[in-house]
Amino acid sequence: MTSDTATTDLMGDVGQSKRFLNRRRRETGLGYLMLAPSLLIFSVFVFYPFFKNFYLGFFRTPPFPGLPARYVGLDQFREVLTSDYFTNSFRVTIVFALLTVPAGIILGLLLAMVANQRLRGIGAYRTIFSSTVATSVAVASVIFGTLLNPQVGLLPWLGLTTNPAILENPKYALFAVAVTTIWQNLGLSFIVMSSGLQAIPDEIIEATEVDGARPWTRFWRVTLPLLSPTVFFAFVVGSIVAFQTFGQIDLLTQGGPIDKTNVLTYAIYKALRDQNEGKAAVLAVALFGVTLLLTTAQMRILERRVHYGN
């Protein structure tokens, strides 16, 4: 009887394991079936264009239309990535990101700190601070293009003249485009920082006030560490957006003067406009690689300083 009971129990366990495995297989199959449409769309609109673009980089565009592209392998990658054209575009992109990302985060945080005060009528200021989030790149570019116009802009109204105009001046054109970008993205930065500040428990801030901590000490020792996940998110996303900037460059400077605002995205556009698909493909792959390396470095280096504790 003991042996028969043990055998029955063993068979019951085996049957239960088989039912569990069958159920897991059905659930796994159902999960993949539900993901299939998304995977298909992702493959068609992301994976295929990326590998196709990488493939086009192996073919040099002929100098005259109608001629077949010539396979050159990695020679075109080597030629484009070591050229002064790519080096200048890469440098301009880095400078543009350094001008826009930290400034946008700092200004958004300062405005969020002001709007987080318990003052009468502060809701109106929150609306004003976040209003630029509804402004498109085209609208922001038109506004600042008009303000910086040397004939009808703000500077002539103030009695200031610039020769050449700011957007045509190699020294100030990139800075002017950066100011436009910061203003256009300030609303989003303010909203993100405000949400992060509101997520900090009031009890913690009140406890530091009771302990006699000064405002700067409270901000540096308490508020900023608790806000670090939000700042980290804004920094990573802002860097990616800065490396993909195109609209304001196209509307304000067209990459000029003398390529001083020719960021990588606009360099790709100019190559396509010149019907040089091979060069544009190489630049696009380079932009992807630079963005991937930058994001990976930020995730590995900056995230170490992020405080996820409650």
Tell me what the structure shows.
The protein has two domains: 2-49; 79-305, MetI-like (MetI-like fold, Orthogonal Bundle), CATH 1.10.3720.10. The protein is built from twelve helices and two strands. The protein has 310 residues and is an all-alpha fold. Helix 9 packs antiparallel against helix 12 (277-301). It has a two-stranded antiparallel sheet with strand order 1-2.
Major beta-sheet overview = 2 strands, antiparallel
- Give the rounded overall mean pLDDT: 86
Number of domains: 2
Outline: flat
Architecture of the largest domain in CATH? Orthogonal Bundle
**Helicity range:** over 70%
CATH topology of the largest domain: MetI-like fold
Q: Uncertain regions: pLDDT < 50 for 5+ in a row? A: none
Structural class: mainly alpha
What is the strand tally?
Answer: 2
**N-to-C order of helices and strands:** HEEHHHHHHHHHHH
CATH class of the largest domain: Mainly Alpha
* Spatial sequence of strands, sheet with the most strands: 1-2
Strand content: under 5%
Q: What is the C-alpha radius of gyration, as a whole number of Å?
A: 28 Å
Short synopsis of the structure:
This protein is an all-alpha fold and 310 residues long.
Topology summary:
Blueprint: H1 2-56, E1 59-60, E2 70-71, H2 75-81, H3 84-115, H4 122-129, H5 137-147, H6 154-157, H7 173-198, H8 202-210, H9 215-243, H10 247-252, H11 264-273, H12 277-301
Antiparallel strand pairs: 1-2
